[in-house]
Amino acid sequence: NAGVTQTPKFQVLKTGQSMTLQCAQDMNHEYMSWYRQDPGMGLRLIHYSVGAGITDQGEVPNGYNVSRSTTEDFPLRLLSAAPSQTSVYFCASSLPGTDTQYFGPGTRLTVL
Amino acid sequence: TQLLEQSPQFLSIQEGENLTVYCNSSSVFSSLQWYRQEPGEGPVLLVTVVTGGEVKKLKRLTFQFGDARKDSSLHITAAQTGDTGLYLCAGEKDQFYFGTGTSLTVIP
After folding, report:
1. What is the pLDDT of residues A14-30, one digit of tens each?
2. Contact yes or no for B43 and A58 at CB 8 A
3. Nearest residue on chain B to A35, judged by CA atoms?
4. C-beta of residue B73 within 8 angstroms of C-beta of residue B21
5. Which residues of B touch A35 (CB under 8 A)?
């Protein structure tokens, strides 16, 4: 098992550019989520999904889109990047009814 | 506004010393988790506490959930250099809310 994988590991964008952060898990977990981590603020939930075809907003969803066409993949899209989206992004997955979230290694995004 | 505040934000201690990290909120949570995160990696779950007043021990780490389920503490006995890392608490309500983090450095 590879667990939760994220690509790319690092990315630099210019303001206004778009990109997709990839997240995949091979543990057949139904629940997947995206967090951003900023200094002194811990992790904040952006979007989450309880299964294929179902997504919902978290604490800080503005500027981000998600979709969940398969159980394995949960991409995060930035349609028009802004400097305020400079952060480290983590994807996580878990089985419903369990409390253990497995996190990926993160994507460090810089928006100039 | 952060739902969970951790203190201290930074902690630097000598190997062998004891320490306590606090996680406080005005909200009630159904459960509370503690994670450790190493540089360049994602957080890893250490423990989940569910019942008010619950105490769990993991080797030299002791976790306590407050009676009112609004706060928690992590106590490390005889810290080792391998304990160095970022410690995060996370409370569960409708979703998981993470604390602000405590960066621990254990000096040999």
Report:
1. 999 999 999 999 999 99
2. no
3. B98
4. yes
5. 98
Q: With contacts defined as CB-CB under 8 Å, which chain A residues touch B8?
A: none
- The pLDDT value recorded for residue A100 is 85
- Per residue in A56-83, pLDDT (tens digit) is 999 999 999 999 999 999 999 999 999 9
CA distance B10 to B104: 6
Q: Are A23 and A104 contacting, i.e. CB atoms less than 8 angstroms apart? A: yes
* CA–CA gap between residue A41 and residue A31 (Å, rounded): 23
Nearest beta carbon to residue B31 from set A4, A43, A99: A99
Q: Is the peptide bond before A75 cis (omega within 30 degrees of 0)?
A: no
Radius of gyration over alpha carbons of chain B, in Å?
A: 13
Measured in residues, chain B has a length of 108
- Answer yes or no: do B100 and A106 touch at CB < 8 A: no
- Residue in A48, A45, A51, A47 with CA at minimum distance from that of residue A30: A51
So what's the pLDDT on residue A110? 97
**What is the model's pLDDT at position A68?**
97
**Taking chain B (108 residues) in consecutive chunks of 10 residues, what is each chunk's mean pLDDT?**
88 97 95 94 94 95 96 97 96 89 96
Beta bridge partners of A34: A47, A91
Name residues 5-24 of chain B within 8 A of A (Cβ).
6, 9
Rounded-to-integer distance, Cα B91 and Cα B71, Å: 9
